[in-house]
Amino acid sequence: MTKMKAVVASKFGNPDDVLTVSDTVDKPEADDKTLLIKVHACSLSPGDYRALLGDKTIVANPKVWPYIPGGDVCGTVESVPESCSDEFKVGDKVVATWDMYGVGGLGQYTKVNPKKTVKLPKGLTVEEGAALANTASHALLVLNKANIQESERVLLLGGSGGLGTLLVQMLKTKKVSYLATTSTDEALMKELGADKVVDYTKKNWWELKDWKNEKFDCIIDVAEGKRGWKNASNVLKKGRAGGRFVAVVFQDWHIDGTHIYQVFGMLLPPFGRQLFNMVRWSTPYYRVYLNEPTKETMTEMLEKAADKEFRTVLDPESPHAFTAEGARDAWNKHIARKGHGKIVISVE
Asked: How does DSSP classify residue 55?
């Protein structure tokens, strides 16, 4: 069997302990259900590190070890099953994302689901394609959930990550009257369009006098979870005035999903808040965001990126090298939540 190079995880654990590079990994074989692609770049999503650490084994429990992590990729088609030969051809550059969790992305070759794969538009690099594979769709769907209206005041909790950098730019296209965000990178946030940036390591956003006096119409939370909701009413309008809190992070950023009771413990409180606050006008409305990318959302956002409707922000250290050190550095930065933009690894 033909061999290839890949970043592999020997077991669940911290990147420095479990990630290595092997040149003797079996190259995937083409089949009649998936596209076989040569990978050029792979980006990291929160689900990737949670899978690597073993935090969500209910849905992310590889059957074969060592396993190849990563699932948001950009590559070139090597083999096409007959079932989708009308849509894809050998040589097409494509962008693909995952279903339950990412696997196979940090190998020179991988198989991807045609239902989660679209063509890379001209004008985008392979690194940009990988960066937008999953996150861009979520940005679009989060904004749909928030139902932002022109001239509203919006606070984004967590502006400098892969999702946040897209949301800042897309919120500005909604012609909001005032856009604030929390981040330690004020220069980047201002460059992308934020009116006010609060360094969450130095100030509590819910204590700012100006925001208490003139409250927000909407808070979108991609960083804090239950702490954000607990403090939101200080600076967010009540439900009767249209105030709404969109929760992308439900409870905590860290998720434990090794037992079914933990999954219920993560899902029940936010859905309880949503139900309770539907009929209570004295508090802001609470909206749970729970969705996934589709071919349609992937295509729409990639085309918008190609048309320069927004900038694809990569973390300054990206793309990371296709080495054990490069992969570990990328994963460690992602786990520490230190990325300013999307973290990408070059698979060349």
From this structure: T
78-89 tens-digit pLDDT: 999 999 999 999
* CA–CA separation, 92 and 88 (whole Å): 7
- Cα separation, 114 vs 88, whole angstroms: 9
CA distance 344 to 334: 10
The answer to whether the bond into 316 is cis (omega within 30° of 0) is no
Q: For 103-129, how does the pLDDT look when each residue is reduced to its tens digit (9 = 90+)?
A: 999 999 999 999 999 999 999 999 999
Peptide bond just before 69 cis, omega within 30 deg: no
Taking the CB of residue 205, how many other CB atoms lie within 10 A of it? Answer: 22
What confidence tens digit (pLDDT) does each residue in 177-208 have?
A: 999 999 999 999 999 999 999 999 999 999 99
| 3-state secondary structure at position 85 | coil
- Do residues 144 and 326 make contact, with C-beta atoms less than 8 angstroms apart? no
% of the chain with per-residue pLDDT over 90: 83
What is the DSSP track for 205-234? GGG-HHHHHS-BSEEEESS-THHHHHHHTT
Residue 58 banded pLDDT, cuts 50, 70, 90? low
- Rounded to 5 degrees, φ, ψ at 216 are -85, 155
Q: Which of 243, 230, 245, 228 is nearest to 282 (CA)?
A: 243
Q: pLDDT of 138-176, one tens digit each?
A: 999 999 999 999 999 999 999 999 999 999 999 999 999
Q: What is the largest CA-CA distance in the chain?
A: 68
Q: Residues with Cβ < 8 Å from 39, sequence gap 6 or more?
A: 73, 74, 75, 105, 106, 107, 108, 109, 110, 347
Q: At what angle do helices 135-146 and 295-306 cross, to 10 degrees?
A: 100
At residue 280, the pLDDT reads 75
Q: Is 83 exposed, middle or buried (0-12, 13-18, 19+ CB in 10 A)?
A: exposed
Q: What is the DSSP string of 317-340?
A: TPSBPSSHHHHHHHHHHHHTT--S
Q: Which amino acid is at 162?
A: G
Percentages of the chain per state (helix, strand, coil), in multiples of 5: 35, 25, 45
